[in-house]
Specification:
Blueprint (H helix, E strand, L loop, with lengths): L26 E3 L2 H17 L17 H13 L3 E5 L8 H12 L4 E2 L10 E3 L19 E4 L5 E8 L3 E2 L2 E5 H11 L4 H6 L24 E4 L2 E4 L3 H5 L10 H14 L6 E3 L6 E5 L3 E5 L2 E2 L7 E8 L11 H4 L5 H5 L4
Helix pairs in contact: 1-3
Length: 336
């Protein structure tokens, strides 16, 4: 490993849940002027018949809100790594209008990317009564999702409905996780840097291999900056294709998971309707508790994967598994 990889990371995104003592300090409130401005831009985008995922700052102008969004992006890129925008009155609007506002705001952070084999760039995270196994994606289930990362520079979630019970969002600093492993189990770092094959869960053309074509490191560095890419279940599910993990790999993953669940490591939050959560996917892992809907309460999030030309980080990851060739890294450095 390089010197950068054997030295503890010292960045504002190194934190534990116990560091947040001022309540929901990650919340950025939207005021009445912001809501009015968003509504005007919504009406203009609707009149121009622009698909939500195709919106850009120039087609969704927000002169009053933009300084707030610029500061939020700085927090994502240079600060703690996550923010929640709160105050959009989603209950007043139809789903299509809420998507337009969400995508319009998100366009100030990055470009929406296709997230799956089906070609969707806007994904509904709802209970579709699907199993959470090697045949489907986790956002189709109401089961607990273990700590993992997603597919692009940033992950955005808009809350349109809350469950009857459960569904808590948990965030974890990957840079703090790295520092802790460096201090307590440095022998695990070579295994984490070598990485693992991932099961593609049917997200590929017929005749293509069901596993990722190469190992994806859990921890990698570029220009001295950490990139974390982790999802335990697709790593374990390679067994369905005849591949096994050796005892050292299993121990490393077990210790990694145990550390994620160490008390005080993660920060916990509950979504409100209209909340928009944005997370730096390279330095933050996220998890979700199991949830239960009923007739009056149904959990409904909308997810975006965003790639930003301003991002300082980047490595091959989940986009290269589920939508090969679509990430900025694969476009800049195509496979031979």
């Amino acid at each position: 490993m390089t010197a950068a990889q054997t030295t503890p990371i010292d960045e504002p995104n190194v934190w534990t849940g116990n560091d947040f003592t001022a309540g929901e300090e990650w919340v950025i409130p939207l005021n009445d002027d912001h809501v009015a401005e968003l509504t005007r831009s919504l009406q203009a985008a609707r009149a121009a018949n622009i698909a939500p995922q195709d919106l850009r700052p120039e087609t969704f102008p927000l002169p009053r809100l933009q300084p707030v969004l610029d500061k939020a992006y700085d927090t994502l890129e240079y600060g703690r790594g996550f923010v929640v925008l709160r105050g959009w009155p989603s209950g007043r609007f139809e789903r299509a209008d809420n998507l337009t506002v969400f995508c319009g705001i998100a366009s100030y952070f990055g470009e929406a990317k296709v997230q799956n084999y089906e070609g969707e760039s806007v994904v509904d995270v709802i209970d579709k009564d699907k199993p959470y196994d090697h045949t489907s994606r986790g956002y189709m289930s109401n089961k607990r999702l273990p700590f993992h990362t997603d597919g692009a520079d940033l992950v955005g979630l808009l809350c349109l409905g809350v469950p009857a019970e459960g569904g808590t969002s948990l965030l974890l600093s990957a840079t703090n996780l790295y520092n802790t492993i460096l201090a307590e189990r440095p022998d695990h770092l070579p295994v984490l840097a070598r990485g693992f094959y991932h099961h593609r869960r049917g997200q590929h053309d017929p005749g293509e291999p069901p596993l990722s074509p190469e190992r994806i490191p859990i921890f990698s560095f570029a220009d001295g900056l950490l990139h974390c890419c982790y999802n335990r279940n697709p790593i374990d599910w390679v067994v369905h294709e005849g591949m096994t993990l050796d005892p050292e790999e299993v121990e490393t993953l077990d210790d990694f998971d145990a550390l994620c669940h160490r008390p005080g490591m993660a920060v916990e939050m509950t979504f409100r309707e209209g909340d928009m959560q944005f997370v730096n996917n390279f330095v933050i892992l996220h998890s979700r508790g199991a949830y239960r809907d009923d007739a009056a309460h149904k959990r409904h999030l909308v997810r975006l994967w965003l790639e930003s030309p301003r991002s300082r980080r980047g490595a091959r990851g989940l986009l290269d598994i589920y939508v090969p060739g679509s990430s900025k890294v694969s476009q800049e450095h195509p496979r031979p």
